[in-house]
Every structure is written in C-alpha cells, then in structure tokens.
Amino acid sequence: MTRAYVGLGANLGDRERTLHEAVVALGAENGIEVVAVSNLRETEPVGVGEQPIFLNGAAELETILTARELLDRLLAVEQRFGRVRIPGEHGPRTLDLDLLLYGDEVVEEPALRVPHPRLHERRFVLEPLAELNRALVVPGRGDVESLLRGVH
Q: Is the pTM above the cut of 0.90?
C-alpha cells in the first residue's frame, strides 16, 4: 500500500457538494481507500484570468494502484463530474483532482509529475496537506510545515 495525497478543487456549481461526492467516488474505486480529508477553504484563483473563487482541500489515500493508475482514476472521476481538460488551459472547473504526492516517490513521465511541480509554491495546497500531516515531507523540497512558512 502506498500513501498518496490528492488536491481537491472546484470553482463552478455546488463546489462543496461536488468535492464531497468526488471523495466518495474515489473511495468507491477498487484499490483506493480514503484515509482522511482536510477542511475545505475558499481561495483566490492563482495565475489565471478572472474567474470564480475556488474551494480547495486535500485527501489522504491508501492505494495499491501505481501512480499512473491512480492518476487515470482521478481523471476518470473528474470526467464523471463534467470536467473537460484542455491542455494548457486553466479556466474555471467543476472538479480538479491533482495527484500531489505518491509515497516518497519522484515520478517524471509524460503527463505525470510527482510531487506535483508547483505544490511547494501554493498555500492552498500546503495548508490542507499540513492539516492532514504536519510532518509530511515533499521529496526534494522538505517538510510541508517549512514549505508553508516560506510561502507568502
């Protein structure tokens, strides 16, 4: 079993309901157990044009799936909730599930980078991770609590 962390986000529709239902959908997947879910928090969109406020959080999972298999499940759940991914576009979304951490592994594959390449720069990702596990270490970056202190 591998401990993985997934970022949760939505800024269209009934955000809270969508995120809760998405977590339930993840837990119903074979090979995935939801261990814990952070509190959800409203956050401003980062690095994109004008769009609605996000609701963000994180989920802690135990999985027997590989990182690629887990990512494929995340993308499938997003699609079930109406998410259409357009490469290079960061517009509003019904659901955003990002694979943030997969054990202590570093994965560099086409369309899959773990740890998530910008998680160490984003308060809206680090805060829920710290809530789930203050001692959590991001491979190659350090512990979440230290990273959070360095983000403005």
A: yes
Cβ contacts of 23 within 8 Å, gap of 6 or more: 8, 34, 37, 59
The band of 46, judged by pLDDT with boundaries at 50, 70 and 90, is confident
Is there a catalytic annotation at residue 122? no
**141 given a catalytic annotation:** no
Find the catalytic residue in 83, 85, 104, 122.
83
Q: What is the pLDDT of residues 73-132, one digit of tens each?
A: 999 999 898 776 666 566 678 899 999 999 999 989 888 899 988 888 889 999 999 999
- Of 15, 73, 96, 122, catalytic: 96
Catalytic-residue membership of 98: yes
Out of 14, 17, 85, 93, pick the active-site residue.
Answer: 93
Domain ranges (residues) in the chain: 2-119
Give yes or no: 83 in active site.
yes
Amino acid, res. 149: R
The CATH number that domain 2-119 falls under is 3.30.70.560
User: What's the length of the chain?
Assistant: 152
Q: Which amino acid is at 119?
A: L
